[in-house]
């Protein structure tokens, strides 16, 4: 006859908890599990937090996730992305020189466009455009070369030949230096320019520096140093050089910096010609060949 004092599971009530259960996860193992659950239940009720929500948050904690997925944590780390090319990197700290150059370029383009009042027939000063184009021809290299060669052929004095020979040397030096710099820099002419210039060459599609400005500065300094002129004529020569350089911007042929550098280059070119001055003493062969012709 079965004893009435048996538990629901069929285990006698008199058997001790230590002998009846040996699994460490049992609530009665050592008494620790039941006490921990009882204390956590009391603390959750005291703070007003649902025990199920507390267990869910504990399971979603970073420590629990790292412990639950040891293979993902121990997996191989991803390789860092390759560095971007130098031209694709963003320069977050530009230099002061770069900022100054960009600002100067922006001011140059803006001022050149404002001064280009004769760039077209429909411009604000379009009626003055024919006069500016005539002034443009006066500073072209071909009329200066042809005129110098003609005067050199007609000259009958050694002093006149010496001056004209150096003038020819200065003109050839100007053409070579301007063509060389234009081919190296390759700065395009302003967008509002009309390509209707007088006798253009392949390098004339570039803008920097202005060949008319270099020639104007070179010729004016050469004339003022080797020709005896009255003061009004000397002022007229300087005014011609200045107006010729200004007309390059007004016609839209060049930017302001092209003309400014052209004036500087022409001024320095005369210094080179003066330093390498050709005379019957240092270049006798050249003068003898010319005199025989």
UniProtKB/TrEMBL annotation:
The chain crosses the membrane at residues 163-185, 222-247, 259-278. Residues 14-27 have a biased composition (Low complexity). Residues 162-274 form the Phosphatidic acid phosphatase type 2/haloperoxidase domain. Its EC number is 3.6.1.68. The keyword Nucleus applies. It is a multi-pass membrane protein. Keywords: Endoplasmic reticulum, Hydrolase, Lipid metabolism, Membrane, Nucleus, Phosphoprotein, Transmembrane, Transmembrane helix. It catalyses: (2E,6E)-farnesyl diphosphate + H2O = (2E,6E)-farnesyl phosphate + phosphate + H(+); (2E,6E)-farnesyl phosphate + H2O = (2E,6E)-farnesol + phosphate; presqualene phosphate + H2O = presqualene alcohol + phosphate; (2E)-geranyl diphosphate + H2O = (2E)-geranyl phosphate + phosphate + H(+). Belongs to the PA-phosphatase related phosphoesterase family. This is Polyisoprenoid diphosphate/phosphate phosphohydrolase PLPP6. It comes from Aotus nancymaae.
């Amino acid at each position: 006859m079965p004893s009435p004092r048996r538990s629901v599971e069929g285990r006698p009530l008199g058997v001790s908890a230590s002998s009846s259960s040996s699994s460490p996860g049992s609530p009665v193992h050592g008494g620790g599990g039941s006490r921990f659950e009882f204390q956590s239940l009391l603390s959750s009720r005291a703070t007003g937090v649902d025990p199920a929500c507390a267990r869910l948050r504990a399971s979603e904690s970073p420590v629990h996730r790292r412990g639950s997925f040891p293979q993902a944590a121990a997996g191989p780390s991803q390789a860092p992305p390759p560095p971007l090319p130098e031209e694709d990197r963003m320069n977050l700290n530009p230099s002061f020189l770069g900022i100054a150059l960009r600002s100067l370029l922006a001011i140059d383009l803006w001022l050149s466009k404002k001064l280009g009042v004769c760039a077209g027939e429909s411009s604000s000063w379009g009626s003055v455009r024919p006069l500016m184009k005539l002034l443009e021809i006066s500073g072209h290299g071909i009329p200066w070369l042809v005129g110098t060669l003609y005067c050199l052929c007609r000259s009958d004095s050694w002093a006149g030949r010496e001056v004209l020979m150096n003038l020819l040397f200065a003109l050839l030096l100007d053409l070579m230096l301007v063509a060389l710099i234009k081919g190296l820099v390759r700065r395009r002419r302003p967008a509002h320019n009309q390509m209707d210039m007088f006798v253009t060459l392949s390098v004339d599609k570039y803008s920097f520096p202005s060949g008319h400005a270099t020639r104007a500065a070179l010729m004016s300094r050469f004339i003022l140093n080797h020709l005896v002129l009255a003061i009004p004529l000397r002022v007229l020569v300087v005014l011609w050089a200045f107006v010729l350089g200004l007309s390059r911007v007004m016609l839209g042929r060049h930017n302001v910096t092209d003309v400014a550098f052209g004036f500087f280059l022409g001024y320095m070119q005369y210094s080179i010609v003066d330093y390498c001055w050709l005379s019957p003493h240092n270049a006798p062969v050249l003068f003898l060949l010319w005199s025989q012709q």
